[in-house]
Amino acid sequence: MRSLKKTRRIQVIAIAALALAGSTALIGYGLSDSIEFFRSPSQVAEAPPPPNEIFRIGGLVEPGTLVRGEGTAITFNVTDGGASIPVTYTGILPDLFGEGEGMVGTGAYVNNVFEATEILARHDETYMPKEVIEALKEQGVYQPDVTPES
């Protein structure tokens, strides 16, 4: 009788492990299209991703590169101090978007130009995304906003 119980326990554990592995594989496969990796401009310049890969790029809008085209078309360069990547975007920009300001864009790198489908800018005067701060610190460019006390 003991060996039958032991055999059943092993079978139940094996089936549970297979079910867990199968469900993990299905979840990973389902999420694979929605996972977006963050890259700094230096990382994109060093190892350009394939044109079909959707990712996020972040840094500062390089001063002097912001060009508004016809309608809602816009081009600019995003930099982290180590590299500068040209960006194109068609759409409405956030209110706080501007030269020298932090931004994060979602899109693909096609023909050496980042084609953005979404642009995010900081939401107030002092906020900058964590990923952008880390990328700027790696390049030695980050300078925190310090307001003098009165």
Automatic annotation (TrEMBL):
Stretches that traverse the bilayer: none
Molecular function (Gene Ontology), one example: heme binding
Keyword vocabulary terms for this entry: Cell membrane, Cytochrome c-type biogenesis, Heme, Iron, Membrane, Metal-binding, Signal-anchor, Transmembrane, Transmembrane helix
One GO CC annotation: plasma membrane
Residues annotated as binding heme: 123, 127
GO biological process, one term: cytochrome complex assembly
Side of membrane Cytoplasmic, spans: 1-9
Localization in the cell: Cell membrane; Membrane
Topological region Extracellular: 31-150
Membrane topology: Single-pass type II membrane protein
Coiled coil: none
Pfam families assigned: CcmE (PF03100)
NCBIfam families listed in its UniProt record: PRK13254.1-1 (NF009727), PRK13254.1-5 (NF009731)
Family to which this protein belongs: Belongs to the CcmE/CycJ family.
Function statement: Heme chaperone required for the biogenesis of c-type cytochromes. Transiently binds heme delivered by CcmC and transfers the heme to apo-cytochromes in a process facilitated by CcmF and CcmH.
HAMAP family, per the entry: CcmE
Protein name: Cytochrome c-type biogenesis protein CcmE
Taxonomy of the source species: Bacteria, Pseudomonadati, Pseudomonadota, Alphaproteobacteria, Rhodobacterales
